[in-house]
């Protein structure tokens, strides 16, 4: 019998702008997920400390103070796992793998990245992927990640990698994950449909991109979005003033099969929910008969992919290499 796991996206909102309490919430959700039999759980984009929706609705000069506070609440990883250690410990204790979206702050510095941290079932931090191209106003917040963290990690739940939000539109980035024989794709998103101008198009865009990668990469896509809750809206109004460009709700979360069927979801709106489905790796062979984008369907004699994997940032090699599992007593 082939390998089977239960994978899930968690459609949830953070405790906005509060790293400590959001990590505590993440741990609660991981425990709930394990109780539901989940082996691999994917969190939304920058779940800790929350997606900075204020960049979509206020002028940069107005949110400069909020930006500094956001950096302060961002996650430091470093060589040991840093702020992620409590999550690494619970993964080891419960034997569950996690991909969690974080705003990541360099150790001892002020630069931040839109990142995804991959943690295995033994608590090992497999590595961190830094979004290589922040979108539009995001560039006022986050630095560009390098090709060095664009990778797939072997894990106990399969070969896992991911991209954040519109990074999923970057065909060369997707192809690089395909070349590394990705099996499970962790796609992290914010609640785009709540942002002015995207109400009628965001969900359709996300669905198209997620199904496209599932089929063209022959991977299971675990798509996790957050939603805008009252706490986020109240924080922005209290600290930055009234606004009407970001509303409550939103998000699009689902699990998609390599042959493009939706296995769980989609789920939208301001309701916390696990979207879970069984991944049966034996089914992949039946898909690969038709299309194998890392093998017989790639036409290497015609197409060449060149990716510069040189580290750009001093700590690229450190975060991409991950961190050892913390000691967890099982007595």
Provide structural commentary.
It comes from Sclerotinia sclerotiorum (strain ATCC 18683 / 1980 / Ss-1) (White mold). Belongs to the carbon-nitrogen hydrolase superfamily. Nitrilase family. The chain has a single domain (4-321), classed as Carbon-nitrogen hydrolase (Nitrilase/N-carbamoyl-D-aminoacid amidohydrolase, 4-Layer Sandwich). It has helices at residues 19-35, 64-72, 85-94, 171-179, 202-217, 230-240, 283-288, 316-321, and strands at 4-11, 40-42, 75-76, 97-105, 112-119, 125-130, 153-155, 158-164, 184-189, 220-225, 253-256, 262-267, 273-280. The protein has 331 residues and is an alpha/beta fold. Strand 4 and strand 5 form a beta hairpin. The mean pLDDT is 97. Helix 1 packs parallel to helix 3. The protein contains eight helices and 13 strands. The strands form two sheets. Strands 1, 2, 3, 4, 5, 6 and 13 form a seven-stranded mixed sheet that branches. It has a six-stranded mixed sheet with strand order 7-8-9-10-11-12, covered by helices on one side. The relative contact order is 0.19. The longest helix has 17 residues, at 19-35. It is globular.
Give the secondary structure arrangement, pairings included.
Layout: E1 4-11, H1 19-35, E2 40-42, H2 64-72, E3 75-76, H3 85-94, E4 97-105, E5 112-119, E6 125-130, E7 153-155, E8 158-164, H4 171-179, E9 184-189, H5 202-217, E10 220-225, H6 230-240, E11 253-256, E12 262-267, E13 273-280, H7 283-288, H8 316-321
Parallel strand pairs: 1-2, 2-4, 3-4, 8-9, 9-10
Antiparallel strand pairs: 1-13, 4-5, 5-6, 7-8, 10-11, 11-12
Helix pairs in contact: 1-3
């Amino acid at each position: 019998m082939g390998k089977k796991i239960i994978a899930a996206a968690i459609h949830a909102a953070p405790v906005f702008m509060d790293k400590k309490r959001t990590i505590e919430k993440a741990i609660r959700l991981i425990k709930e997920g394990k109780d539901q039999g989940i082996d691999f759980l994917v969190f939304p984009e920058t779940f800790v400390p929350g997606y900075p929706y204020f960049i979509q609705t206020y002028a940069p000069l107005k949110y400069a103070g909020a930006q500094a506070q956001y950096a302060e609440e961002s996650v430091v990883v470093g060589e040991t796992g840093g702020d992620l250690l409590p999550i690494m410990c619970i993964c080891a204790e419960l034997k569950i793998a996690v991909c969690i979206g974080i705003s990541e702050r360099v150790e001892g510095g002020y630069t931040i990245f839109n990142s995804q941290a991959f943690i295995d079932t033994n608590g090992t931090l497999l590595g961190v992927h830094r979004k290589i191209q922040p979108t539009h106003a995001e560039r006022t917040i986050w630095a560009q990640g390098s090709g060095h963290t664009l990778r797939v990690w072997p894990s106990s739940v399969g070969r896992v990698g991911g991209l954040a939000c519109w990074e999923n539109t970057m065909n060369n980035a997707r192809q690089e994950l395909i070349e590394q024989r990705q099996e499970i794709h962790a796609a992290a998103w914010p609640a785009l449909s709540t942002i002015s101008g995207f109400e009628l198009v965001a969900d359709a865009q996300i669905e198209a991109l997620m199904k496209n990668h599932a089929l063209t990469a022959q991977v299971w896509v675990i798509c996790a979005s957050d939603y805008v809750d009252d706490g986020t809206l109240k924080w922005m109004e209290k600290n930055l003033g009234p606004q009407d460009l970001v509303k409550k709700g939103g998000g699009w979360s689902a699990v998609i099969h390599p042959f493009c069927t939706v296995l769980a979801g989609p789920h939208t709106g301001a309701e916390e929910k696990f979207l879970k489905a069984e991944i049966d790796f034996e089914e992949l062979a039946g898909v690969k008969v038709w299309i194998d984008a890392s093998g017989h369907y790639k036409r290497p004699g015609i197409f060449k992919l060149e990716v510069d994997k040189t580290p750009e940032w001093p700590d690229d090699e450190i975060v991409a290499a991950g961190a050892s599992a913390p000691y967890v007593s099982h007595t």
